[in-house]
Design a protein that fits this description.
It is a single chain. This protein is α+β, with helices and mostly antiparallel strands and 267 residues long. The protein folds into 2 domains: 160 residues, outer membrane lipoprotein receptor (LolB), chain A (Clam), CATH 2.50.20; 94 residues, Topoisomerase, domain 3, CATH 1.10.268. 30% of the residues lie in helices and 30% in strands. The chain has 6 helices and 12 strands. Strands 1, 2, 3, 4, 5, 6, 7, 8, 9, 10, 11 and 12 form a 12-stranded antiparallel β-sheet that branches. Strand 4 and strand 5 form a beta hairpin. Helix 3 packs antiparallel against helix 4. The longest helix is centred in the C-terminal third of the chain and has 24 residues. The radius of gyration is 20 Å and the shape is globular.
Length: 267
Amino acid sequence: MSGSLRVSGKNRQAEPFDERFDFWHGGGGQWRIERDGEVVYLAADEETVFVLIDGELQRQSGGRIRMAWVGSMFSPLDLLGENSLLRKMSSGMRASRGADRIDIGGRAAWLTELATSKGDGNIELAFDDATGLLVLLRSPSGGLLEVTNLAVHDQIDSERFTWDGPVADADPGKDDPLVQAAQRIEILSAISSALDRPQDLLQAVSGTRDGHQAKAAVIDLLGVTDTGADAVLAMQIRRFGSAEKGRIQAELTELRNYVADYSTTDR
């Protein structure tokens, strides 16, 4: 299966975002997800996972930590599986009417609506007739999730799910999923703090003479760890855009939920 996913709306800070992904999904946990032509998630199987983190593909542990570290409010990973967006929604909503047959991107689909438990409006959903895949979600607030260019393949070349470029290996002593999640939270929390105070950050760093002083200034200003300060100093300018902050907050929320679930179910 392959296709394109567009996600738009407003993030938790009421700031607009509009993102597009291209994706390929094969059997055995195979995934390839690209954003703006750049690979952000690659999985050859359940255990061989690469994620774009801070500008480089990093090898991640498979198994229990199959998380959507794509840095987006939603991604193609939310379309399928036991943790899919639809499964999360279904527990608190009910269908408000029957389904109507429609056409989406030249493919037959079924359109229906779900009533929210709060009664604040209906969510419009459409499912591809042949695959059952969620291909449209439109919320009362204007949020949109739409799958286009959907295609079903008998087989996708395995090379699509392999990577022969540079990869940053994870520390072999830090393969524990909970440790990885905690480290990522540490980094993202520091970056989030920096995004809240861009002018203060620039002023603090601009007056330093070298990297050591700059790092100390970041730690003093934001109250972050050494690791967090390194992440802040390595940030690209584009990350100060409003959409990036929404991505950071979404990833932080998912990681914290993961840690909470892991702590209660895996001990």
